[in-house]
Amino acid sequence: MTHLLPLAPHCPSLARTLFRSLVLAPSLALSLFASGLPASADGLTNGNLARIEVLDGGPLRQGDHQAALHLRLADGWKTYWRAPGDAGIPPLFDWQGSRNVGNVEIVWPTPIVFDQNGMRSIGYKDELVLPLRITPSRAGQEIHLSGRIEFGICKDVCIPAELNFAADLDKTSGRDPRIAAAMAQAPFSQSEAGVTKASCELSPVAGGLRVVARVAMPPIDGREAVVFEPNDPSLWSSESATHWDSGTLVADADLMHPEGGMIAIDRSAMTITVIGSGKSVEIHGCSAG
Fold it and tell me: What is the pTM of this model?
C-alpha cells in the first residue's frame, strides 16, 4: 500500500516551499477534517472552506471496485492537479487505515489552467470528483477505504489543508453518475486524440536539461498548455512554451534538480499532457528527437 506519495514531477519539499511563499495569510493555515460525510451533510457549513466525502461506484467486472473522493470547496476557491504548475502544491494521499485495499489507481479529470500572480497553476475550481479504481487484497471481501489527503486551496489567499476520509464500500452499490461524469472528463489516449507521433529532444542547460517535444496531432483549441512529467519525483519542470508548426504542437520546458544534482531522463517513461479547454490528451513516452 502506498503512503503519502506525491503524484507530481515536482520535488515535494520544493513545491511546498514555493506554495507557502504564496500564502498571504499564514495565520489562516488550516487542518480540515471530515470522515465519510453522511448523505445529509450537503454543502459547506460552519465556515469550512473544503469538505470531502467518499462516493461508492460499486464493483467492477474485473473484481476491482469503483469509488471517488468528492472534494467540495467554498465558492470561488480552487485546488490543484497532480502537476500543479509553478504556483501550486501537489496533493499527497495516505491510504493508511484502509482494509483489504491492495492498490488504488487515481483517474485525474481534465484540469483548468489558471494564471495566479503572474504564474501558471493547474487545478480545479469549486469542486473535484476524483475517481478511484481499487484493487482489493482479497477478492470478494469487504473493502474499507480510509486515509488522508494533504493539498492546497487558493482564492485571495493560499492555504495548506488536510482532510481525513473513511467509508465502507458496498458490494451491492450501483454506478454513481457523479463518478461517471468525472470519468468522462478523463484525458484522451494518444489513439483517441489522433496523435501520430511524439518525439522529445533533450539538450543541456544550466542546472538541468531542456526538453523540446513535437507532437503530431489535431489541435484541441489552438491555445493548448503542455505539461511534462518525467518519471522522477525529484525533478522540477518549468512552465512550457508552446506553438503550432504545420500540424505539429511544439513545446519546450526546462527540467531541473532542486539541489543541482545530475539528471537522467528516460524518454519512454515521460508523460506529456496536452491541456485545452475542457479536453486533454495524455501521451506516455516519446521517441528521440
Answer: 0.84
